[in-house]
């Protein structure tokens, strides 16, 4: 099964990336995921279910520990034609 995760961490800071945003980027880029897109207002990555779920667990734990006060998260199951 393939999954797509979309997430944002808050609070936002338009002048400088907060620590939790840098940690989120580090976690997602280090995970064994495909089609990673990291941006200032939203992040997306795809991969196998185990890799995505492991990355989400790490993401939640590390960003909260780094000062995130809210994490919006959506996980979708991808069909065979989705990419």
Describe the fold and architecture.
The structure is a single chain. With 83 residues, the chain is an alpha+beta fold. Helices cover 35% and strands 35% of the residues. The protein is built from two helices and four strands, in the order E-H-E-E-H-E. It has a four-stranded antiparallel beta sheet, with helices on one face. The longest helix is centred in the C-terminal third of the chain and has 17 residues, at 49-65. The protein is elongated.
Which segments are poorly predicted (pLDDT under 50) over 5 or more consecutive residues? none
Helical segment count: 2
End-to-end distance, in Å?
13 Å
Beta strands, count: 4
Main sheet summary: 4 strands, antiparallel
Helix content bin? 25-40%
- SSE string, helices as H and strands as E: EHEEHE
Strand ordering within the main sheet: 2-3-1-4
Based on CA inertia axes, which overall geometry fits? elongated
Rg, rounded, reads 12 Å
Indicate the mean pLDDT. 92
Which structural class matches the secondary elements? Answer: alpha+beta
- The percent range for strand residues is 25-35%
